[in-house]
Amino acid sequence: MRRAPGVRARAATGCALAVALAAFGSAESAPETTALPPLQPLVDATPDGATLRPPPGAWAGPVVIRRPITIDGGGAVTVDAGGHGTVVRIEASGVTLRGLHITGSGSNHDSVDAGVGIAGSGNRIEENAIEDCLFGIDLAQSNDNVLRRNTIHSKALVTALRGDAIRLWYSFRNQILENETSDVRDSVAWYSSDNVFSRNRFSRGRYGLHMMYAHQNVVEDNEFRQNMTGIFLMYSDRVELRRNRILGAQGAAGVGIGFKESSSATLEENDIVYCATGILLDVSPFEPETLNLFRRNRIAYNGVGVVFHTDWTGNEFRDNDFRGNFSQVAVRGGGSAIRNVWQGNHWDDYAGFDRDGDGRGDTPYELHSWADRIWMEVPPAAFFRASPVLEVIDFLDRLAPFSSPTLIVRDEAPRFDPPPLRAAAPREES
After folding, report:
1. Rounded Cα–Cα distance for residues 8 and 47 (Å)
2. Of 89, 246, 261, 427, which is the most buried if we count CB atoms within 10 A?
3. Considering just the CA atoms, what is the radius of gyration of the chain in Å?
């Protein structure tokens, strides 16, 4: 007699639990060993489309999933690979991992030992705690997956020897939502397009998010805190960055958002605060007749608000708020940023008036390079910025310049009053 599908699923689940109980019994009959019961037999016994809920406790990995199933740990199940390989590897589509504590991957960078490795599409990785894993979640040629509300920590190594929290390699249309990563190396999207990074928190890493040859990605409502670099785009076009908060990218190479030969980017309503360099532009935009648009961003309390690596063009800065930066804009090599568009920005060092009350300064905002050229042309001299010696040199150069200063920026209609502070974007509840 043919059984109904629900009966078959319940029978398979019962078989899986029987395997689990047998594993427990085996462990109890050999008290001298500390080996964990393996999770792989339970996975192999779970039919397509069924849900495996292992009994609470610790289970041994590595585990390979080759069929569309759901594993739900309910927050009480640990999978520990004991320092060998990838803890959970998904080689199927339509798999869901939920509520697991995943730990103990290997330490091999060449084999990308990870908490979760995905080689399929349409999978969901939700509400898992991944720690003591070299890499967190690795997607390789894997599309249309959802990574949501996972916490990820790497191994206790120096930053350069850790793995990446989230790694996309030739992967498209994935959604990376509301995850929290810390004490990792980077999160990366390489050769990967049309992905969405939204409402995540990236902290205490090297690159909060590093994109290379990664086009048309959306990065919005994320927080990047105390990374060496917040976001860096390399050879990546048409990327949209909106309402992100990049905080505390300090150190000699600290950058809030960096560009290397990247074109047609849109940056709107981001907060870039307390970084060594707020925005770094290196030969960007790169493609002819393209532009990068910076609009309504707050660039505040940085060492330098915007740094141009060379005298370049093709960037538009409109309605941004520049406040509290030691220097608003700098150009390395003694050039100028005047060939870019500066329109309607608020500059807290503007020395002008708004007599007609239209909210715009009566005279243009102009930024010149005076003694600043010392540290622009000789970067190690930046260590002495704000020192009495350079302050005296700067004062004397402005009082009686030996040569004409270089005009760095000219904003024809600067905003007179600063825009109101924005609240941080709320995290959605499911």
Report:
1. 9
2. 246
3. 27
Q: Which of 275, 264, 205 is nearest to 235 (CA)?
A: 264
Sequence-separated (6 or more) residues with CB below 8 Å from residue 387: none
Q: How far is CA 44 from the centre of its chain?
A: 35
Q: Which domain holds residue 161?
A: 53-411
Token duo for residue 353: 């008036």
Structural contact between residues 226 and 208, judged by C-beta atoms closer than 8 angstroms: no
Q: C-alpha distances in angstroms, 128 versus 78, 104, 120, 429?
A: 10, 14, 19, 16
Q: Note the Cα 387 to chain centre separation in Å.
A: 35
pLDDT value of position 286: 95
Q: Which tokens in the block code for residue 225? A: 């805190």
Summarize pLDDT for 91-142 with one digit per residue, the tens. Answer: 999 999 999 999 999 999 999 999 999 999 999 999 999 999 999 999 999 9
Q: What is the pLDDT of residues 164-189, one digit of tens each?
A: 999 999 999 999 999 999 999 999 99
Number of domains in the chain: 1
Residue pair 308/334 in contact (Cβ under 8 Å)? The answer is no
For residue 256, give the CATH number of its domain. 2.160.20
Angle at 267 between CA 261 and CA 269, to 5 degrees: 160
